[in-house]
Design brief:
The structure is a single chain. The relative contact order is 0.26. The protein has one domain (27-213, 236-246). Strand 7 (83-90) and strand 8 (93-101) form a beta hairpin. It has 2 helices and 14 strands, in the order ββββββββαββββαββ. An 8-stranded antiparallel beta sheet has the order 9-10-11-12-8-7-6-14, with helices on both faces. The chain has a 4-stranded mixed beta sheet with strand order 3-13-5-4. The two termini are 31 Å apart. It has 247 residues and is mainly β.
């Protein structure tokens, strides 16, 4: 199933921006400057837009902001041994993150969003295309099989951001999928992610593989014959092997 919903939080400033005369000076956090409420300047960010990694966790293609009491789960594709996704759980809600290559001249979120909605509906679910803090997003009811073998539905919010030659997809599940207040922390985390695209040529929608925390890029176990990671499954409810860290 090709699966790819909403955010809130203060915007970040441009690097190096000075405080207005007589105003309060911006405060630097995680390599950005806070202090100017301008939604047009909120992330996610490209690595070229930040001065330093700051307190973010280095996952290779992603620099992930750290949060108190968060559980970080890295998902691994069993067929390729590639780390395909990072999932952050805070207070019972989860944000799954994957990043993909995209064309230089056009974004892919509009097309992907339509494909997700079509896929969900074909499987007996529903998907509403709505405006959200990161632009258009989907609020879906995704069909799932219960422990008793019956078919149920699980709410999921699909958010996306088109960056320079990359696309970042987030899936919110748990209470954050239906309660805006519960979603604020994970939405803020999504808005402060940094993508490290790299210069390697990749086909649009190819997965940008991640690395385990503390592992140097290239040192992770990936097939030597694979020049790039293939497009990954985008279903947030189908997981590969997982490694979990608590922060």
């Amino acid at each position: 199933m090709g699966l790819f919903r909403r955010a809130k939080g203060s915007a970040q400033d441009e690097p190096g921006r000075q405080a207005e005369p007589g105003g309060e000076a911006p405060v630097e956090t995680d390599g950005r400057l806070d202090g100017v409420a301008d939604e047009a300047r909120r992330g996610p960010w490209d690595v070229s837009e930040v001065d330093e990694r700051g307190r973010r966790v280095d996952l290779g293609a992603l620099w992930l902001p750290g949060r108190d009491s968060m559980e970080l789960r890295m998902e691994i594709d069993k067929s390729t041994s590639i780390v395909s996704a990072a999932a952050v759980t805070i207070d019972g809600s989860t944000l799954q993150l994957q990043v993909f290559a995209a064309p230089r001249t056009a974004g892919i979120w509009d097309d992907i969003r339509a494909e997700i909605a079509e896929s969900v509906v074909k499987q007996g679910g529903s998907a509403d295309d709505l405006p959200g803090p990161f632009g258009r997003e989907l609020l879906a009811r995704v069909p799932v099989r219960t422990a008793e073998g019956r078919t149920g539905h699980r709410p999921a919010r699909f958010i996306g951001h088109d960056g320079p030659r990359w696309f970042l997809r987030g899936v919110l599940t748990g209470r954050a999928a239906i309660d805006p207040e519960e979603a604020q922390t994970l939405e803020g985390l999504f808005a402060d992610v940094v993508v490290v695209r790299g210069s390697a040529a990749k086909a649009p929608r190819d997965l940008l593989p991640l690395t385990m925390p503390g592992v140097r890029p290239g040192a992770a176990a990936t097939p030597a014959a694979a020049p790039s990671a293939p497009a990954a499954s985008l279903d947030p409810f189908v997981r590969g092997p997982e490694i979990t860290e608590i922060h």
